[in-house]
Each structure stands twice: as structure tokens, then as C-alpha cells.
Amino acid sequence: MGIKPKTEIKAEMYTNDEGSLDFEVLELDTSWAFEKADTRYLTHDIHRYPAKFIPQLARRIIEEYSEKGEIVLDPFCGSGTALLEARLTERNAIGVDLNPVAYYVSKVKTNPIEPRKLKRMWEEFSKKLSPLFGFTKVEPYPLPEKALEVLSAWIPEKQLQDMLRLFTLIVDVEDEQFREFLLVAFSNIQKNCSWWLMKSVKPTRDFNKKVPDVVPTFTKQVRKMIKKNNQLWEVLKNSKTWVKVFRGDTRKLSSIVTDTVDLIVFSPPYVTSYEYVDVHKLSIIWLEQVWELKELKRQFIGSVSARPKEIDVKSQIAKEIVEHLSKKDKRIAKAVKTYFEDMQLSFMEMDKVLKNRGVVSIVIGNTKLKGVEIKNAEVFAEMFIGMGYELERVVKRPIPGKNLPTVRDPKTGKFTSRKEQHVKVYPHEFILFLRKG
Ligand SMILES: C[S@@+](CC[C@H](N)C(=O)[O-])C[C@H]1O[C@@H](n2cnc3c(N)ncnc32)[C@H](O)[C@@H]1O
């Protein structure tokens, strides 16, 4: 199972004078930086997604720790970067994510449609977008009144009416794969065709924005996706591999058969960082036809509104971090405690589906909240070691800087895109390799 790395390092090599795990002491390994890598090839950039993997990074982990034909699981698959890299390197892959946007993007990204069939279906569909065909007479999709209310605060009237017509046409498409392909294109134009401030990771409106028309923006997006789909089809046309994507909660991996996965690779959500439901608010309203997002938000790991689980966190480092934080800010201490509880519950589920001697690889950065070091990497390693895993290797890699917010507002401790008073949050991150059994 997989190629063993040449340098096998034991957990003892990462312990400090107090006998606690400490990865900061490691030298940076620049061979994992992928600074100038092209991250947009094939279908990797069909949809925006925050904190995406660098494809080359996911690929290297997959190639070093699994064999062709084996099963790779990304339990926080997001936009499906690792899933696509698994197929490209002749592995099978399973992806899980709670976000409906992640579910559709991952499916479409990894399963290309036969180009001639796609061309035919698009020709037929695009005719309906023309005024000659009577696009303006298409019945606007009957979204619930409350959902419309929320959307109209974000989308100018003309654009909203066009989106409602376009949505009617999309949900009417019979071929499931093509319908999902169009839904991904529709989801990706939500931010363009609304007052959404493009640079913002939080829902923020920019009323000075010149909002483009829906049909040409959608058409351009579909054309780009067709081109990328066809390139991927060429690469995968003789492939026997498969990708399965589940929309679900990693704390309950019941759709995956136990002891079947060879390699687990992921980059987890961070605590009090992105609120994924907020980031994809407009898309989620369309895809799920819900408008009250509070309850959904609570289910996301790392959300400030996540519910405490009150389980015993099996990491001394985690306990110390929470204790230290509670002296500074009780609310943040509670959010961090809940985050560690949720991650532990996820790890227990991952353990059920992973084969004996299989590897878990986690790409994770440490951070600071209210002046307290949040040593995610050490906490996660400790949790897995506690479950009987062997810490086989830790890589400390420099971060090229564009995939994660790197600045925190010194006053609020929150991520900001403002350039003043820079405080680097993730100058580097860690890649952990933990072997089961
Ligand atoms: C750092 S992102 C992963 C990005 C991914 N590696 C990529 O390349 O796009 C973390 C993901 O965790 C997901 N997530 C948060 N809570 C979850 C949960 N309880 N179950 C499953 N996924 C969850 C978020 O929706 C988000 O997509």
C-alpha cells in the first residue's frame, strides 16, 4: 500500500523540552511550496472556492502514499481538487462535503461529459436563451417568497428576473449530468451578476458595481466550462477510475463502507475563519431553495455558531489552548473547544473507513487567536496518535500566499483584506502523515 517515504521520523523527534509535540522547530521544505504552479489546469477552475488545495500538492501526497487503482478519500472535499488529482493519477476517489456548492462542483469537475453529446445539449439549450426563442416569456422560477426577498436585496431586478427564467430552463433539463453542469455555471455567476463585492470573503454589497447581464455572463461561463470539460474528457477517456461525491457530514460517514479506503487526504475547515454558508449564500439559496441559513451554518465545523458537543477532547495540547483562551475571551475559547470536539468526531469516523496500515494526510496551518497559539497541527497529530496511529512524517511548507487569508485585524482578530497593519497568520503550514495500526 503506497510507497513509504525514505525518511521515517518518529513522534519523539517533534517533541519539545516539556515533552509536548512541537512542529515549529522543523526546517521549511521548499520542495512542497509549488510557488509557480499552474493551479487552473483542466477543470480545476470551473468554480471559485475558498482555501482550495494546490493541485500539485494534493497530487504529490496521493502519488507518494497510494497506488494506482486504490481508493482515496477527501472527507472535506470542497471544490474537489484532490478528487480530480486522484483520477488523473489513476486512483478512485470519494469526496464528502456539507456544502451543496462543493457537492455539485466536485461532481462536475471530476466527471466529464462526452464532448459531442455536450455540444448537442448546449446548442439546444442555448437557443432558448435568445430573445428570438422568447427567453423573456419563459415563466420565472417560482422560488418561495422569502427566498426572493433575500435575493432581491443582492441582485438587481433585471438580473433577478433573468436568473429566475434561466433557473426554470435549467431545472427542466432532463439529463442529470448536463443539468448539474449548468447548475455549476449558474452558481459561479451569482457573485458576478449581483452587488456582491467580488474580493470579499464575507457577504458585502458594492452598490457602485456595474452588474453585468445574466445571459452573456452565463454563456461565457458555460463556454469556458465546455472547453475544460473537453480537455478533461480527452485525458480520462480510457480511464477505468471513478469518483463518488456525497453531500454529508464528515462526523457521520455512514455512506462509506468500513475498512475500504487506502488514503485519506484533506485540508480541514479552520475555526472562526470562513463561514462557508455565508461565502456561498446566494448559490445555496438557489440550490437548496432555503432562505433561513442559520441552522445549516451551525452544522459547519469551525463556524462560530457551531453547537458544543461536550465530549472529552483527547489532546492535552487542545485542553491547554482552550484553558489559556478562556482567560482572554470566553466566546472564542468555546468556539475553539467546539472545533476540536468536531474534528475529533470526524477523525473517529475517518478511522472506521480507513484500512489498516492506511495513511491519513492532513494539510493544516497553525494560527493565533487573542494572542494564543492555536496549534491545530499538533492537536490533530495528538488525537490520531491517541487512536493508535503512528506519526510517520511531518512536512513544514512555505505558503505561496494566495489561497488563504493571510492578514488578521489586530483589534478584532478576524481575517481582513485590508493591507494596513499586516499580521501574517499562515507564513507556513504543515502536512502530517499518520499511519493506522
Ligand atoms: C478548507 S475547505 C476544503 C477545500 C478543498 N481542499 C478544495 O480543494 O477545494 C474545508 C471544507 O470543509 C467543509 N466542511 C465544513 N464542515 C463540514 C462538515 N461537518 N462535514 C463535511 N464538510 C464540512 C466546508 O464546506 C469546506 O468545503
Question: Can you describe this structure?
Answer:
The longest helix is centred in the C-terminal third of the chain and has 24 residues, at 330-353. 43% of the residues are buried. With 437 residues, this protein is an alpha/beta fold. The chain starts with 54 loop residues before the first helix and ends with a strand. 38% of the residues lie in helices and 13% in strands. The protein has helices at 55-65, 81-88, 100-110, 115-127, 145-152, 157-171, 176-188, 214-236, 276-279, 281-288, 294-298, 316-326, 330-353, 376-386; strands at residues 71-74, 92-97, 243-247, 261-266, 354-364, 367-369, 372-374, 390-398, 428-435.
- Overall outline: globular
What is the percentage of strand-forming residues?
Answer: 5-15%
Q: Using only CA atoms, what is the Rg? A: 22 Å
Ligand kinds:
S-adenosylmethionine
Helix content: 25-40%
pLDDT < 50 runs, ≥5 residues: 1-8, 418-426
Count of individual beta strands: 9
Assembly annotation: single chain
What would you call the structural class?
A: alpha/beta
Distance between the termini: 13 Å
The succession of helices and strands, N to C, reads HEHEHHHHHHEEHHHHHEEEHEE
Q: What's the story with the biggest beta sheet?
A: 7 strands, mixed
| Average pLDDT number | 92
Number of helices: 14
The strand order across the widest sheet is 3-2-1-4-5-9-8
